[in-house]
Amino acid sequence: MKSTLAFSILRILGVTYGIALMAGEAARSWGMGRHWAWILDDFVVGAPLVIAAVLVGNPTLRRRCAFSAAWAANAGMVYSSFFTKLLEPAKTDVGNATADGLLYGAGFALIQCSVCAVASIVVDPVRINEKP
Q1: DSSP 3
Q2: Which residues pair with 3 in a beta bridge?
Q3: pTM: predicted TM-score of the whole model, two decimal places
Q4: Ramachandran region, residue 3 (left: φ > 0; alpha: ψ -120 to 50; beta: rest)
Q5: H helices then E strands: how many in the chain?
Q6: What is the DSSP secondary structure assignment for residue 4, as one 8-state letter?
Q7: Cα–Cα distances in Å, from 68 out to 74, 82, 84, 96, 120?
Q8: CA quadruple 37, 39, 45, 48: dihedral positive or negative?
Q9: Are 28 and 96 in contact (CB under 8 A)?
Q10: For residue 93, what are the β-bridge partners?
């Protein structure tokens, strides 16, 4: 069974976003002495998104639920991150980044994760009336 184009794009976005999230947090924190807990949270939500995006290539109900939940978990995490950076910029630990870059990045990520979480529920993963 072939995935629909829209669902394939969601999977590619999931892998790309998850890897970028983890790599970006590592780059932001490298050599800055940040507490490990503030680094690990991005890996805790990024890795399941990458894994679920790969596994949902062979879609089952559980894998689709895991994929949607991973997008939703990322949206929830970045919601807090975005509004903390927006409303309390003095409390933002920028590390190796800029405050504006983190704010815009978190805003874009919030929109992306929210849209992808909904789309992962709504979009059919496979073509229904396709002959093998």
Answers
A1: B
A2: 126
A3: 0.88
A4: beta
A5: 4, 0
A6: P
A7: 10, 21, 25, 31, 5
A8: negative
A9: yes
A10: none
